[in-house]
Amino acid sequence: MTTVADKPIRWAVLGTGAIARAFAEDLRLLPDATLVAAGSRSPEKGRAFLDAFGSPGRGKVHGSAEELARDPEVDVVYVATPHARHKDDCIACLEGGRAVLCEKPFAVDADEARAIADVARRTGKFCMEAMWMRFHPLIGKVCELVAAGRIGRVRLFTADFGYPTSYDPESRFFNPALGGGGLLDRGVYTASLAQMLLGQPSEVVGRAAMAPTGVDEQETALLTYDSGAQAVLTSSLRSRLRNEALIVGTEGTIRVHEPFFAPSRVTLTRHVEPVGPIPEAAGGPGGWKAKLRRSPAARRLVNDVARPLVRMLKRDSETFVEHVPGGGYQFEAAEVMRRIRAGERESPIMTLDDTIAVLETLDALRRSWASA
Ligand SMILES: NC(=O)c1ccc[n+]([C@@H]2O[C@H](COP(=O)([O-])OP(=O)(O)OC[C@H]3O[C@@H](n4cnc5c(N)ncnc54)[C@H](OP(=O)(O)O)[C@@H]3O)[C@@H](O)[C@H]2O)c1
User: Fold this and answer.
1) Is the model's pTM score more than 0.90?
2) With a 6 A CB cut-off, is 41 part of the ligand 1 pocket?
3) Residue 269 pLDDT more than 80?
């Protein structure tokens, strides 16, 4: 008898926009995945999508989430519609008996996310937010380094995510009816990585600048944790930011280079924070060390030559490089298939509770803007 463990997992994609195409392209990197259906408001677009990313002339096009959900040939639906549609689309798919991988943000707020999670738990179907960053091999490496104590106790996390986006009030970025705003589109990554590394914050404050449509176009958040750690998160729809993440611990720093949500380079630098009183420079305030520090030429020599040399000799800096094939969406898809084959309902790397917790943080930020 053939079981789900040795059959290819049959995927459907709901919505045929930009990310659906990128995801379907990466799905082709997985030999045990097959694209069998598409859900689209337009039969022509749905057909063209399947012809481009599935087998030409094969697979079914469905006109709605409800119709797609009734297709017994589909194991799992990848929901790639705008955020404001996620709740209804996910619930329709789960109620129809399909597993779900839903694009980020999973929903527009925590209440909607809880409603989806309730249906997933009631129907017993696998369900996960497509927070692909969490499944990227180098993000896995970062978590491993932090968990192994390689940078000591985490004290500070900073991350920023911003690229200029053309202003179109009708687009999903700026249209409030489609769940527009930088926080839901980009801030969700910085908050999700903070949640992954530090857990639930005890306090959340933030400020946002608004676009003419009333959605947030730039936002900065300060999150504090019971451990004493802090996180500073910035996202923008309008400006190009560094798009890096920095995790600062008591014994080292991890820099996740741009783009931090799908990195190909991570640098770990070891250092030890001084404890106790700050030692006086050799010879006191007028001594040779203090004089050296005041000289720009000496400072340049120390910073540009001596320090990198010492670092190299002490090997206190390590770089991890990984260039993955495709766009990097195949890792989340592979995780979904692994869990479905194992009969599991969630992934421990992106649990529904964690998704809800991140949306609670985003909700708290919006309340903080409103109280300003
Ligand atoms: N993981 C990532 O890297 C990543 C990147 C970009 C976006 N996303 C997420 O993916 C989702 C879709 O983003 P996208 O950039 O792919 O958007 P998009 O290009 O606008 O595509 C969304 C698709 O959803 C369908 N749709 C259903 N109802 C719609 C409605 N009322 N208005 C507009 N489209 C509707 C449309 O497909 P049909 O015309 O075929 O019905 C449309 O092409 C968002 O939640 C976004 O946050 C994730």
Assistant:
1) yes
2) yes
3) yes
